[in-house]
Amino acid sequence: MCADQIERLPTGITGFDHIANGGLPKGRTTLVSGTAGSAKTVFAAQFLAAGIKRGEPGVFVTFEETPDALRRNMLGFGWDIARWEAEGKWAFVDVSPQPDEEIVELGSYDLGALLARIEHAVRSIGAVRLSLDSLGAIFTRLSDTRVVRNELLRIVSTLRRLEVTAVLTAERTQEYGEIARYGVEEFVSDDVVILRNVLEDEKRRRTVEILKFRGTSHQKGSFPFTVIPGEGIHVIPLSAIELKQRSSNVRITSGNAELDRMCGGGFFRDSIVLVSGATGTGKTLMATTFMAAGVRQQERSLLFAFEESRDQLFRNAIGWGIDFEQMERDGLLRVICNYPEVTSLEDQLIFMKAEIDRFRPQRVAVDSLSALERVATIKGFREFVIGLTSFIKHQEMAGLYTATTPTLLGGSSVTEAHISTITDSIILLRYVELFGEMRRGLTVLKMRGSGHDKDIREFTIDSRGMHIGRPFRNISGILSGQFTHIAPSEIDRLSAMFRDEESSEARDQSS
Amino acid sequence: MSKIVLQLYIAGHTPRAERAIGTLRRMIESELAGYECDLTIIDVLANPQQAEDQKILATPTLIKSSPPPYRRVIGDLSSVTDLLQVLNLPPKS
């Protein structure tokens, strides 16, 4: 992945090492800059905590919070600093402001004492890592900024001599603009990471961006992250993983023989199918059938439901002759119902990944994505879908997402527009008005890597599920919702003209 | 009358440290000649743990722990007059 010579120190921060192409440059000092509340202190502490888990002791130089406050605050992430201190794995250099202390300056000074303390702490526990939080606080404590600047330079070069990999945090006054206050990037400028906490469409979005790693590679752009209890910072590396998925030729059944036939023999394993349709067209039925078909073949199936309650879902399934309760008892099915509003999309993704990791299903269904879309920005939603999709595909699972179109007839959903390129197959369910009657139509719009049926077929739903019938022959404009009825002779003429149409044309139809 | 207790933290015998020590000696010998005075010089390079315990940031740092009020002064203590004023010395009573 990284062909350069600069050795990396894996931070152990989930997802960060991925965007850092392996970790922070080893033996160097990285500036981590962010506005107030951008999780700089958490990053600094997690860098050490993750190191300790790898057997690398760490020193925390604190200029802001007292060691007591840090011990207390970080416990929520599962980091027992007091115990690590007792075990000689963590040491504080406490430079936090003392409440009763007033420093009077009389003449010139240096930070020789701080330097000696840092060196002493590093040597006494054999530290591999060091965090300093934060640089700005030093400047507010001492009046001679020129001295502070010189001394920080001396500290950075001492750290290099001690061969510790260090994280220095610094404040920014705004999300976009100069890297940090006091121009600190001038003396620790080799490696810069920026943490952001941006308000976007009234929703908070945290992102991390590696601005530069001198002389070595990293992933460009900003990546969303979240701070979760019991873990800390969790970076979601999206584009970094998008294109490395395996694909498979193994077909699995959708649960509906006719639909399998339309898809050229079933869905592919390791593929994601998007089912789009207006409310009541049969999306939940399709997800239910897809789950049940897995269970019938002794595959573990996991359903995330965001629109309907458990009771309602189970009742629906019974109505179609599928006993979810029994399947759950057999341990082959797990249904998780969640209100999308209770948590941010980043946390939702992490929660879903954890559930997938725990249950290890071969099939995953999400009903529906549109419910999740309501709680996020467009960008955040897209990132969520990419993150989930790549995760599912890495696990060699088949996924089925449903999306709700906002209009009853024709149209496309925002969900569709944003994720259609990510999914491997798209199935559209549409209402069709036919001589004063509402019927339902289904078409396979896209089937990556395979031929498929191009017809728009009528289907019905009864107590045994979905039944796909004959193509609509005397109507056009179903996908747009602008129906036109055509005389039968015209149909024969047209189908003769376009007998050999390719799938690309079918795709064009949709756009 | 209480003893005057002073601790000076230095990081090696730098010119700054020598200037601070010089000023302190002059102050003790001239202005505080009639008082019992206890000055300890601590080199943080040799005793980093002591610097940690006292949370010393800059050097030189002078701490006056007695008589009250407690005082912490950083810098090379350029003048005796300023230093006496900052330290609230000699004791008024």
Automatic annotation (TrEMBL), chain A:
Entry annotated with the keyword Hydrolase: yes
Gene Ontology biological-process annotations: regulation of circadian rhythm; regulation of DNA-templated transcription
SUPFAM superfamilies named in the record: P-loop containing nucleoside triphosphate hydrolases (SSF52540)
Record-linked InterPro entries: Circadian_clock_KaiC-rel, Circadian_KaiC_bact, KaiC, KaiC-like_dom, KaiC_C, KaiC_dom, KaiC_N, P-loop_NTPase
Pfam families according to UniProt: ATPase (PF06745)
Gene3D superfamilies to which the protein is assigned, alphabetical: P-loop containing nucleotide triphosphate hydrolases
Taxonomic source organism: Chloroflexus aurantiacus (strain ATCC 29366 / DSM 635 / J-10-fl)
Known EC number: 2.7.11.1
EC class (word): transferase
Residues covered by the KaiC domain: 7-249, 250-482
An annotated Gene Ontology molecular function: protein serine/threonine kinase activity
Keywords from the UniProt entry: Hydrolase, Kinase, Phosphoprotein, Repeat, Transferase
Protein name: non-specific serine/threonine protein kinase
PANTHER family according to UniProt: CIRCADIAN CLOCK OSCILLATOR PROTEIN KAIC 1, PTHR42926
UniProtKB/TrEMBL annotation, chain B:
Record-level GO BP terms: rhythmic process
Domain KaiB: 7-89
Superkingdom classification of source: Bacteria
InterPro entries recorded: KaiB-like (IPR039022), KaiB_domain (IPR011649), Thioredoxin-like_sf (IPR036249)
Name of the molecule in the record: KaiB domain protein
Lineage, opening ranks: Bacteria, Bacillati, Chloroflexota, Chloroflexia, Chloroflexales
